[in-house]
Each structure stands twice: as structure tokens, then as C-alpha cells.
Amino acid sequence: MTEKILNYINGELIEPVGKTYLDNINPATGEVYSLIPDSDERDVELAVLAANAAFPVWSNMPVAQRSDILLKISALIDKNLDRLALAESIDQGKPLWLAKSVDIPRARDNFHFYATGAIHLATEAHAMGNSAINYTLRQPIGIAGCISPWNLPLYLFTWKIVPALASGNCVIAKPSEITPMTAFLLAELCREAGLPKGVLNIVHGLGPKVGAAIVSHPEIPAISFTGGTKTGEWIAKTAAPMFKKLSLELGGKNPNLIFADCNFDEAVKTAVTAAFSNQGEICLCGSRILIEKSIYEKFKEAFLKRVSTLKVGDPLSDDSRMGAIVSKPHMEKILAYIELAKQEGGKLLAGGKQLQLSGKNSKGYFIEPTVFENLAYDCRTNQEEIFGPVVTLTPFETEEEALMMANSTQYGLAATVWTENLKRAHRVAAKLHSGIIWINCWLLRDLRTPFGGMKNSGVGREGGFEALKFFTEEKNVCIKL
Ligand code: NAD
């Protein structure tokens, strides 16, 4: 029997008001394996009622007590790690080993990090000599709307909801309709951990219905969104006239700068990981590889050799380095970009087509790791986010040229630099237009650091105390002495 996902509202797992459902497809088999509530504004309204009722209790609960409940959820995620990882892999198409080693541990850590972080959030005081003292009162906003994408489902869902909850807000959250399963399973764990009813509400369904109802609801004063730049633009337009607080984590087209003085083997190895992890469906993937001309041919050869060892296969097999693309429409979008790259004069060096697997995966959505060269830095393939296993190799002659190409897109999320020259590393990092710069590494994350992008990659920063501050309203209290 096909499993039915349910909304989590007011502490209960319930059907959507309209009683209609959407198909949830396993991308590795192309088959419907569960049903997603096709909720609408009526379900969001129920969630708002529940959150409003829960807010006085939750926001007034001592922070240590809130923290205890969130730590219990963290422990339950750990206890259920294998089950959650399997669900994530089936729902998203990512290799099971990746879900086990990255996605679910990170969701657990997000709970742990913010459950403890909220205890340490301090406030500032500003003394005016002997005449007055000011202090900052930081209070929860009320209801936070959290909307997340499909690429790292539970990882990014929890990255938003936990700082919101830890700082005393109630939350109405919408996971992606493409990957709703682990958020549904999380609701069960929240109930088991004793999270008071109405504190977290999860409404499943389509972006333009449920997401839009959350964004435009007058009683939801803060919106934290991760997803595409176009959707972010719509959210900004809708929320701005209502003066909502907005955090937007959007798309990327990240450059990976390889200088001739790099640690060559490390650079090649990590460039392949940065290009094709999670089938290239990570907003931080390095999809534009810029290589100093003097080592271009050597790098290309070593890079392609390594790419040829990447096995694309059943996400549930231990030896699959890459799994399935998340959905048929997304696979078709990626294949259209591969055609575009050819039309733009790109020379195909590896991959370039859908991979037909056999047996239970014969109807799944798989694409070979794809590498192009010979494309102008400013062509569409090099400017637009593909969000799949497609990368380009481009030579540069000077540091200035590398920076010019790196900074040429509308995006500014992440950049990676490979050089053993310390001065160059600092100089280039300062000149790159990106919110995150990795020097001689990729995806090395410290949860205390500010996370987010410049330009059309977003507004605001997540991570560390930044997120706790975002989900609180600051009030200055001035006392005359
Ligand atoms: P998307 O914008 O299509 O959807 C993201 C979420 O927004 C989903 O839950 C969706 O249902 C919802 N949504 C869609 N339309 C909406 C609307 N009108 N109002 C409110 N909500 C709406 O993005 P996606 O395809 O799920 O994710 C891929 C994108 O996310 C890529 O561009 C990727 O770079 C980006 N991303 C960014 C980061 C980051 O941290 N910057 C992280 C992961 C993914």
C-alpha cells in the first residue's frame, strides 16, 4: 500500500483539509511510492491558529527547558539515523552512504548546535557614562515561516526550523513537495520528544499554494527561505510591502579557481567531489572550474581520469558514487542544458547523456557526470545555474582574468581557490564576490560561521548566532540613572 504523508499541525498528524494528495516519486525507480498532502491556505490557517495558541507557553519557557526538548529530538534523530537515511535516499535519489554520513548526521547536529547555542546567546549593554544605561532585549518574533528545497531535505529543513524554535518562536514549515518524507518522519520524533503541540507545524504541498500562503500570511512576520533565485524574487516582492523579516538563501554558480602552484593531487580530487557530490545538486558545488593555462592540459587529463571512475547507480548500493537526479522535470532541465552547451560550441569531454540502468532502476532518472570545455566564460552554460552533474573547464592566464571570470555571474554564493601561495590566497579571497570562500578545501563547515550569498545568491546570513538574531526582534531599553 502506498504510504500517506500527513501534515503535522497542533501536535497531530492530520490529513489536509481538501483531502487531496500529490504523488511522491522515487527518482531511482520512477515509481510513485507515497502520497503528499496537496495542502492549501486552509491548512496554513490551521497551523497559524495552533502556532498562535502555542506561542505564549513556548516563548516563556526557560531557554534551558526548550533546549532539553530540542536535544531530545537530536538524540532521536541519532537513534533513527539508519531509517531516516534510507528514507532520504529513496525520496531524493542521493546515495544511501551520503545520507548516512552527511545529511542525517547534519540534521542531528543542527538540533544539537542550536539547542545549546540558544543558551549562550547574550545581550549587549551600552553605558552612557553615569547618566544612563542601554541594554538590548532580544525577543522571539512570533511565528516564523520556514521554506526549504529538495537537495538536502532534512539537513536544510532543520537548519532553519531549529534556530527559530530555539529562540522561542513557533514555526510553520514547508519542506519541498519533491522530498517531503524525512520532514514527515521528523514530526513523529517531535511528538515522541514531547515538543508541545503547535510549536512546530509542518504543512506539506506545492510552493505556489502552501509556500505562497505562508509568505503572504499577515500573522507570519518572518520568512526564512532556501531555494531558487526566481522563487526568492517572488517572495521578496510579496513580503516586502508587509515589512516582513526576510532571510533568502538562493542559487549559485560557483567558481573553483585552480592556480598552477596548487597541491595538484588534492585539487583534482576535491574538484571532482565538489563538482559531482549529490549528483551536482548542492548549491555550493563548484561547477565552473577555472584552471591556470600552464597546467590546464595536465589538470584536464587527471580530472577526466578521476571522473571516469565515478559510478552512477542505484542509490541504495554502497558502490554508487552518484545516485538519481531528483525528478524527471529536473533531469530534463539538465539534459536541455547539456544540449545548450553543445550549441554554444562546447566540446564534450565526458558524459553528456541520460544513463539507462537495468532492473528496478530501468525507469529511474540518471545522468552521467558531464564535463565540457571550450565555452566562453560569459555564455549561458557558464552563467546560469544548472544544479546537476555538469561542469565546465576554462583556462585563464592571469589572476586578474581568473577573478574577472569568477565574478562575472549574477550569483555570489561560494568560491574555492587552490594555491599554495599564502599571499595570493588572501588577496584572491578578498576580491571574490562570494559569501563563502574555501581555500584548498571544499564544504568544510563550521556551524558557527556566517553562511549565505552575495548578489542574487541571497540576502542575510544563516549559521551561528546570525540565525538566532534573525529569529529575534531587538529592542533597546534605555534607563536614565
Ligand atoms: P524552489 O525555489 O523551486 O523551491 C524551494 C521551496 O520553495 C520549495 O519548498 C517550494 O515548494 C517552495 N516554493 C516554490 N514556489 C514558491 C512560492 N511562490 N512561494 C513560496 N514558496 C515557494 O527551489 P528548489 O528547486 O526546491 O531548490 C533548488 C534551488 O535551491 C537551487 O537554485 C539551489 O541553488 C537553491 N539552494 C540554495 C541553497 C543556499 O543555501 N543558498 C541551498 C540549497 C539549495
Secondary-structure map:
Layout: E1 3-4, E2 7-9, E3 12-14, E4 21-26, E5 31-37, H1 41-60, H2 63-79, H3 81-92, H4 96-120, E6 125-128, E7 132-140, E8 143-147, H5 153-166, E9 170-174, H6 181-193, E10 200-202, H7 207-215, E11 222-226, H8 229-239, E12 245-249, E13 254-258, H9 264-276, E14 286-292, H10 296-307, H11 328-343, E15 347-350, E16 370-373, H12 380-383, E17 390-396, H13 399-406, E18 411-412, E19 414-418, H14 422-431, E20 436-439, E21 454-455, E22 458-459, H15 464-470, E23 472-480
Parallel strand pairs: 1-5, 8-9, 8-11, 9-10, 11-12, 13-14, 13-19, 14-17, 16-17, 19-20
Antiparallel strand pairs: 2-3, 4-5, 6-7, 7-23, 12-22, 15-16, 18-21
The protein binds nicotinamide-adenine-dinucleotide.
Question: What does this protein structure show overall?
Answer:
This protein has 481 residues and is α/β, with parallel strands linked by helices. It has 15 helices and 23 strands. The strands form six sheets. It has a seven-stranded mixed beta sheet with strand order 15-16-17-14-13-19-20, sandwiched between helices. A six-stranded mixed beta sheet has the order 10-9-8-11-12-22, with helices on both faces. It has a three-stranded mixed beta sheet with strand order 1-5-4, covered by helices on one side. β19 (414-418), α14 and β20 (436-439) form a beta-alpha-beta unit. The chain starts with a strand and ends with a strand. The model has no long low-confidence stretch (mean pLDDT 98). The structure holds nicotinamide-adenine-dinucleotide. The site of nicotinamide-adenine-dinucleotide has 30 residues, from α7 and α8.
